[in-house]
Amino acid sequence: MHLIDSHCHLDFSLFDRDRDQVISRCNDLGVKAIIIPAVTVSGWPRLLSVCAQSKILHPALGLHPMFMEKHKPEHIDELKHSAKQHKHTLVAIGEIGLDFYLPDHDKQAQTDLFTKQLKIAQDTELPVLLHVRKAHDQTISCLKKHPVSGGIVHAFNGSIQQADQYQKLGFLFGVGGAITHPNATRLRSLMAQIPLSSLVLETDSPDMPIANMIGTRNSPENIPTILATLAELRSETAEEIALITTQNCQGLLKL
Known about the structure:
eight-stranded parallel beta sheet, globular
């Protein structure tokens, strides 16, 4: 079985002591590709260095909306430059988006940053990896104004109507550890309804732990558990889900 973790922060220091072992165990479990999205400019060199150490790791570069205080105007120029410099290794621009869940969020500043990064994605013809909380309608509006070559809505938890809007814009939805929690009834129902042709698997490691692992480091090794849970919620078999979600990811990110 060939699986992909479409969203994993394996470059974070929590993995420094055993990153090679985690990658080796992933390989044994059938997780043959791991996408590592960026958060801030200061982390880009480390992220690219980590990805260069294994052929199963694939980088994305971007400016995350949860860290607005760390982003500076010149970082957009750095993203333009880095996207061109690493165009043969980058699979996407990300992690980018809008987060209106944050206290004291500046909607205009976030929207301006997001729009500028969408333009870079347009220029480089790269898909985008989206982080969106309490801002799906605003995000969809931005995407309609600045269309890109598709992308993945990471940890999607919006409505089925919003999902339909994203699908029309060429977007897939990341299914992660949240579906393994039995009380996540609305999310579990949502992921049973969205067409399999629009789903990909993800862990968001080291965050978003699976059920019974709260308080511990999440890992891309948990992709098979997420797959098994998704198979329980849907009509397709685990093998079918593995095949289609992997093809979805490969097609979008050109893996």
